[in-house]
UniProtKB/TrEMBL annotation:
Substrate binds at residues 40-44, 52, 56, 84-86, 88, 90, 207, 213-215. This is Isoprenyl transferase. Belongs to the UPP synthase family. It is an enzyme of class 2 (transferase). It comes from Desulforamulus putei DSM 12395. Its EC number is 2.5.1.-. GO terms for cellular component: cytosol. Homodimer. Pfam families: Prenyltransf. The active site is at D39, N87. Mg(2+) binds at D39, E226.
Length: 262
């Protein structure tokens, strides 16, 4: 099993700690969908006397290794929060750096992601992204559209409130055009009008960086998600951290408001 797990991507040796964690994880009870708020890049850099941009660059390395791990484990969906609807408030320089980094990441990683069966998708108001970013995303979507491995969902210009607002507008339009009756509006109809239509809700949410909030991420979808928070800054977030999160997830009792038969 380990051979299968280590053989796919081109990367460094599996450490002993990682090996132990890999062996402890129950492969039959993996989360279907993992969501990650990739936070702490700026603080990571500033603590080292470096510009925030170098933190973002280091954060891309964490993203690479976490995507690899999820792909190797057979996780179905990985949603990574990369840029929020509120992040436009940052200095223009930082926003441009992040947009360029997105293009660089997609172009550089596309071949390897594609050859490992990863399907790239994005959620958010993509039409408002700069043109080079939209084009890089389109290239990635087109190339990977028929892949059936990990669905890598990048949350870009994403806001949970914006997503719900957009769903309300779409549904209101259907009612106005007499294509939908008000009594047909229910939870599953709303779910199918979110950007995440067709995807399972996240089972596990990971937020590194020591902040205890969801920062407008997946407000509807996180209703019964298990949270795993850590002080580690995203650029320091390694495979072992995600393995620890999954292991802890497997020890949680999920009740969804009901009771567990003992
Ligand atoms: C997350 O790191 C990346 C984005 C929000 C784009 P931050 O840039 O928020 O880093 P901190 O939270 O300031 O350390
Ligand atoms: C959340 O982090 C957004 C991303 C990681 C893309 P922020 O750094 O923007 O969140 P706040 O401002 O700390 O809530
Ligand atoms: Mg932050």
């Amino acid at each position: 099993m380990l051979k299968r797990i280590t053989g796919l991507f081109n990367r460094q040796k599996v450490t002993e700690d990682e090996n132990k964690l890999l062996q402890s994880i129950d492969r039959n009870r993996l989360p279907n969908h993992i969501a990650i708020i990739m936070d702490g890049n700026g603080r990571w850099a500033q603590r080292r006397g470096m510009p925030r941009s170098l933190g973002h660059r280091a954060g891309v390395e964490s993203l690479r290794s976490i995507v690899q791990l999820c792909s190797e484990l057979g996780i179905k969906v990985l949603t990574c929060y990369a840029f929020s609807t509120e992040n436009w408030k940052r200095p223009q320089e930082e926003v441009s750096f992040l947009m360029n980094l997105l293009v660089e990441y997609l172009d550089k990683e596309l071949e390897e992601l594609h050859s490992n069966g990863v399907k790239i998708n994005a959620i958010g108001r993509l039409a408002e992204l700069p043109q080079p970013a939209r084009e890089a995303l389109d290239r990635a979507f087109r190339k990977t559209e028929n892949n059936s491995g990990l669905l890598l969902n990048l949350a870009l210009n994403y806001g949970g409130r914006r997503e719900i607002t957009d769903a309300v507008v779409k549904i209101a339009r259907l009612v106005k055009d007499n294509r939908l009756e008000i009594n047909e509006i229910n939870e599953s109809l709303i779910k199918e009008h979110l950007y995440t239509a067709g995807m399972p809700d996240p089972d596990l949410l990971v937020r590194p960086s020591g902040d205890f909030r969801i920062s407008n991420f997946l407000l509807w979808q996180l209703a019964y998600t298990e949270f795993w928070l850590s002080d580690v800054m995203w650029p320091d977030f390694k495979r072992i951290h995600l393995l620890q999160a999954i292991l802890e997830f497997q020890c949680r009792e999920r009740r969804f408001g009901g009771l567990i038969k003992k």
